[in-house]
Design goal:
The protein has one domain: MetI-like fold (Orthogonal Bundle), CATH 1.10.3720. 77% of the residues lie in helices and 3% in strands. It contains twelve helices and two strands. A hairpin with a 2-residue loop joins strand 1 and strand 2 (8-11). Keywords: Cell membrane, Membrane, Transmembrane, Transmembrane helix, Transport.
Length: 275
């Protein structure tokens, strides 16, 4: 492009791609700052504080059983995760089996539990004692939650674990067989350890999802000693007509999930460097 002057035409200097990107970035910053300022000017700070951060309810929430609810959430999550990894590994091996019925059973299981909401599965397990009188899971309600959530997560983990097994180079198995290892031993000692190193980040993501899914446990009608964070916060919120306890419960979930998210990023970065 050119600009006409008394001396003639002078070519207009074009912005380099780097400067153009910098200018766009500064425009985005300006828009973001304007939105933040607009929110600050329009939001009623006192109203927000009274609804979401009431000081007296913060103290009540922190001193009326929050540590127990937090610990229950951790127990529910990690128990279900152990069940999910164990059952998911079995399902993954069945999907890769040369025995057709094993593949069919694993495929039906995976498609069923991936298609049914975890809430319905929890409700079904909570009502099993009605259909089968006298049936109780060990360490109930923990056993019920571990089994129900673990069976749902196993359907997702199975596909992740299967992908990890397939990602292990076939030469590793062939070398193990050449050394005289049976196929089962080669799978246990060579393939699965490498597969789990590959899939550790996605499995950690599944652990984060399980932490949030533990909030569905309220449908089992738990006693106060077995409350998880969401049920605990909701009961106090309903009693006081205020959302502060639920906000505190949400921050507690962040205390669990943020370190896990940071761990996943570190592992992914480490794996990327290793490549």
């Amino acid at each position: 492009m050119t600009t006409t002057t008394q001396a003639g035409t002078v070519p207009r200097k074009k912005l380099s791609p780097r400067k153009r990107a910098q200018r766009i970035r500064w425009i985005q910053y300006a828009i973001l700052a304007a939105v933040v300022v607009l929110l600050i000017l329009t939001v009623d700070g006192r109203q927000v504080q009274s609804v979401f951060f009431r000081t007296d309810l913060i103290q009540v929430t922190l001193t009326s059983g929050l540590p127990r609810a937090l610990l229950n959430t951790v127990f529910y999550t990690f128990g279900a995760f152990v069940v999910g990894v164990t059952l998911g590994t079995l399902l993954a091996l069945m999907r890769l089996s040369q025995v057709a019925p094993y593949r069919w059973i694993a495929s039906i299981y995976i498609e069923f539990f991936r298609g049914v909401p975890a809430l319905i599965v929890l409700l079904a397990f909570g009502l099993l004692s009605v259909a089968f009188p006298g049936l109780r899971f060990p360490l109930d309600p923990y056993g019920t939650v571990w089994t129900a959530l673990g069976m749902v997560s196993a359907a997702y983990m199975a596909e992740t674990i299967r992908a990890g097994i397939l990602a292990v180079p076939k030469g590793q198995v062939e070398a193990a067989r050449a050394l005289g290892m049976a196929s089962g031993m080669a799978m246990r000692r060579i393939v699965l350890p490498q597969a789990f190193r590959i899939i550790t980040p996605p499995l950690t993501n599944e652990l984060i999802l399980l932490t949030k899914d533990s909030s569905l446990v309220y449908v089992l009608g738990l006693t106060a000693s077995a409350f998880e964070l969401t049920k605990f916060g909701r009961d106090i919120s309903n009693s006081n007509g205020n959302l502060t306890p639920l906000v505190i419960a949400g921050f507690c979930y962040l205390l669990i999930t943020l370190p896990l998210t940071f761990l996943v990023r570190r592992m992914e970065a480490k794996a990327k460097k290793a490549r």
